[in-house]
Structures are given as structure tokens and as C-alpha cells.
Specification:
Layout lengths: L1 H11 L2 H11 L7 H14 L1
Length: about 45
């Protein structure tokens, strides 16, 4: 899937294909730890 999304992005320049490629290379979330860290960062920026 990662190879296909890169080839599609290279041919079309579609941003969604690049985001899919980038997401496919990331390790899966473990119990929402990464997601919770992102939420905290957004909360700090809001204040």
C-alpha cells in the first residue's frame, strides 16, 4: 500500500496520497499515547 500511494502521489501530486504514504510509514498507535500527546499540545496552544 505504501509503494502504491507513493507512486500515485509522484504521478498526480495528490496531497491525500502523500498523507496516506506518510501514515503507512508510521508505527501504529499504542493505547492512544500519541493521540493523547497531540491533544495536550492543542490544549496548550489554545491557552
Amino acid at each position: 500500500m505504501r509503494d502504491f500511494s507513493w507512486k500515485y502521489f509522484a504521478m498526480t501530486g495528490d496531497v491525500d496520497a502523500y498523507l496516506l504514504y506518510k501514515q503507512a510509514g508510521e508505527p501504529p498507535l499504542n493505547d492512544g499515547e500519541l493521540l493523547m500527546g497531540e491533544e495536550k499540545a492543542y490544549d496548550e496552544e489554545a491557552q
